[in-house]
Amino acid sequence: MKTVAIIPARMGSSRFAGKPLFDILGRPMIEHVWLRTKMCKILDEVWVATPDKEIFDVIEKLGGKAIMTRPDHVMAMDRLAEANETINADIVVNVQGDEPMIYPEMIEAITKPMQEDESYACGTLVAKIIDQSEVEDRNRVKVVRDLKGDALFYSRETIPSKAKSKEPIDYYKMVCVYPLRKQSLKDFTEWGMSPLETIESVDLLRFLEHGRKVKVVETTQQTFNVDTKEDLVRVVELMKHDPLYKTYA
Rounded to 5 degrees, what angle do the CA atoms 28, 96, 34 make? Predict the structure, then answer.
C-alpha cells in the first residue's frame, strides 16, 4: 500500500500572502514542514504540490520532490487530487504547509489506523486546546466527536457550546494532518462543495455530509499553524526551544 505525504503550498494565501517562504530561524517555513514530514518512517515518499515556481524551486534545490499544479484551485484537497493523478498513492497524507512544528509521530499516529481499517474515508488528528484564547479564535478549527470517537462536526466557532454546561469543557482543535484514500480524494473533488462545508469553511465536512466515516486520533503533542503574522512571531519563539528542530538546525 503506497502511502505518500503531499504538502500543498501556495504563495497567494488570503490570510497571509507568501507565508510558505517566510523565514523561521534561517529556513523558509515550507522547508521546516518538508524536513519534519520526511522523518516519518511509514511514508514511502514526501511531495510538495504548488502552483508557484518559487516554492517548487526551493524544494528542488533541497533535493526534494515537488510537483506543479494549477493555480486556480480553491481548496488544498483539489490540489492534492491533481498531484495524485501523477503520484498515484493508495493513501495520501495531507500535511498542511503552514504547520512548521509538525512531528513525524503525529503523522504516523493518524496514518496507521487508515492503513489498518479500510472503512474510513479519511482521518484527522486533534489536539486538546491548552491556550484558551484558541477556543474563540476562528483561525482554529474545533472538533467534536461521536460516542465512538469518530468525527461528528467541525467548526471555526466555539463547539460544543459552553452556555449551559455546568462542568468545565475540554475543547479540541484540528491539527492539519489528514490521510485520505485515493478513491476518497477522487470522490471529494467530484462531489463539489457541500452546504455545511461552505458555511463553516472546513473541507472535511464534505465527507461527513456525504455519510463517510472520518477517523479521529488525539495527540498530546502541540503544534501551531501559521495563519497570521502574529502566529509566525509566536512560532519563531517556540521553535528556538523545540527539540526536533535542534536535530536538523
Answer: 45
